[in-house]
Design brief:
Elements: E1 2-5, H1 14-27, E2 32-36, H2 42-46, H3 58-64, H4 68-71, E3 73-74, E4 80-83, H5 92-95, H6 105-111, E5 119-123, H7 130-138, E6 141-147, H8 152-170, E7 175-182, H9 189-202, H10 215-219, H11 227-230, H12 235-250
Parallel strand pairs: 1-5, 1-6, 2-4, 2-5, 6-7
Antiparallel strand pairs: 3-4
Helix pairs in contact: 1-12, 6-7
The structure holds adenosine-5'-triphosphate and magnesium ion (MG).
């Protein structure tokens, strides 16, 4: 199962979700590959990779045809492997502009190794650039992390419309796995109203699991750790374990 974690808006919890959902799956016994498609490489750094040690990265795989297998590396967590992001990914649209089949490159790369994993999670950059398109083409399902803030519904509707257009244009049937509320606080009336509006509009497409705002989730990346290593008893760990269960259920794996 290949899952893209996508939202063109920045800072909605894509990377936090990619890293901790991957770690939760690995903890539950699944074999997981995290593909970091962001030039900021936040997911890789969150898994303890040093900035100076990002190469070989997805940029080498996508631009220089190095075998993805040779770019896969282990993480500190059992059953969780990753391919790092890297600064060169920022120029993907330019570098791949004239390359035939440029939207299918990730799908092609993953073909040879997908059977080695139960889940492949793609952390997308905050845009609908060629990298996110590659992730959508490669993925079976996609998750949209969302924060309950002003204009959340409007942003979501326009993202979903763009995704539908992309799917039609590319002839792909990558399905929505769910919309995930992240950084959910307590008590803010406006945030509750936004959650209700999104629920009214998207109903069952919204995950029952909500990721609460949690200081440990925000701190863990600066120590190069996922939440289960950094603060296994924190709300954040509990929420991402619940999300992993709900994803497994929605995928019909259980
Ligand atoms: N549930 C949470 N509680 C507290 N802080 C969080 C939570 N989720 C994410 N954060 C923090 O919020 C910031 C944005 O999260 P994250 O990097 O996951 O978003 P993103 O969508 O990947 O951002 P970008 O669009 O820049 O790639 C980060 O500093 C992260 O540590
Ligand atoms: Mg990110």
């Amino acid at each position: 199962m290949i899952i893209a974690i996508i939202n063109n808006k920045g800072g909605t919890g894509k990377t936090t979700t990619s890293v901790n959902l991957s770690a939760a799956f690995a903890d539950s016994g699944y074999r997981v590959l995290l593909v970091d498609l962001d030039s900021q490489a936040s997911a890789s750094l969150s898994l303890g990779i040093k900035y100076s040690d990002l190469a070989p990265s997805m940029a080498d795989v996508l631009f220089d045809d190095i075998l993805i297998k040779s770019a896969v590396r282990p993480s500190a967590r059992q059953r969780l492997e990753l391919v790092t992001g890297g600064t060169e990914l920022a120029n993907s649209d330019l570098i791949l502009a004239d390359v035939p089949g440029r939207e299918n490159r990730l799908a092609e790369c993953l073909k040879g190794i997908r059977q080695e994993y139960d889940f492949i999670i793609c952390d997308c950059p905050p845009s609908l650039s060629l990298l996110s398109i590659n992730a959508m083409v490669a993925a079976d399902r996609y998750i949209v992390p969302l924060t309950a803030e002003y204009l959340a519904l409007e942003g979501l509707i326009s993202l979903m419309a763009a995704v539908e257009k992309l799917k039609t244009g590319m002839g792909i049937d990558t399905e929505l796995l769910g919309i995930l509320f992240t950084m959910v606080g307590t008590g803010l009336k406006s945030a509750r109203e936004i959650v209700d509006l999104v629920l009214e509009h998207y109903g069952e497409d919204v995950f029952k699991t909500r990721i609460r705002r949690n200081v440990s989730l925000g701190e863990a990346p600066s120590f190069g750790m996922n939440i289960f290593d950094y603060a296994p008893k924190a709300h954040g760990a509990e929420d991402y374990l619940m999300l992993a269960d709900e994803v497994v259920e929605r995928c019909g794996i259980k």
